[in-house]
Amino acid sequence: MEQRLSIAVAQPRCVAYDVAVNAAAHAVAVRAADARVVVFPEMSLTGYELDALPVAPDDERLAPIVAACAETGALALVGAPVPGPSIGVLAVDGDGAWVAYRKVHLHGVEIDRFVPGEPTVIDVDGWRLGLAVCRDTGVPEHAAKTVALGIDGYVAGVVHADDEVDVHGERARRVAADHGVWVAVAAFAGPTGGGFARTSGRSGIWSAAGELVAEAGVAPDEVARATLARSVR
């Protein structure tokens, strides 16, 4: 018997610090994605603004995303600063939100502002998804420790400059080659903080063989989607 999971990577436009406006854009992306899991870039709710206030899971501004997930049956993996403070991933479904992950490998000024987390896996309909944020994907130890927890796929949100457009693809292919798991990466599109006047976009999904199976373009608001399959007994 074959089991399927639809997954999308989204790169919505972002207004710096404006969680309410950005949450509305996330809701649009969730509805457009038509997928069970929708992955968003690093700090997609605030922009890569390291002084942005943490977004708590019970923040009322998340309501549009919760509503979109309730309508579609999706689980959204949203990038945001979270209490700790940490650079985190908020998992959002039709019932609400929770902190699913905290970035492990901080770098630069992040180290002085945020608390790191630990490798983490979430379960979606029996599929085990290992989570990552940006720099994590460039540290082979992170993927190795996450894979050791038992995963079907490695899911990340990133911010890369436009001249780093090939970085997340190279890392995704390495993770697939080293560990035999599929990889989904949502990459920021459009300007954001931290000196990222132009970002890469080109969010993508790679098979366990390292083949690119779906890719967005460079513009904000694009979504790429794929359906993953596995044999089950």
TrEMBL record:
Keywords: Acyltransferase, Lipoprotein, Transferase. InterPro entries: C-N_Hydrolase, C-N_Hydrolase_sf. Pfam families: CN_hydrolase. One of its GO terms (molecular function) is acyltransferase activity. SUPFAM superfamilies: Carbon-nitrogen hydrolase. It comes from the Bacteria. PROSITE patterns: CN_HYDROLASE. Residues 5-230 form the CN hydrolase domain. Transmembrane segments: none annotated. CDD domains: nitrilase (cd07197). This is Nitrilase/cyanide hydratase and apolipoprotein N-acyltransferase. It comes from Salinispora tropica (strain ATCC BAA-916 / DSM 44818 / JCM 13857 / NBRC 105044 / CNB-440).
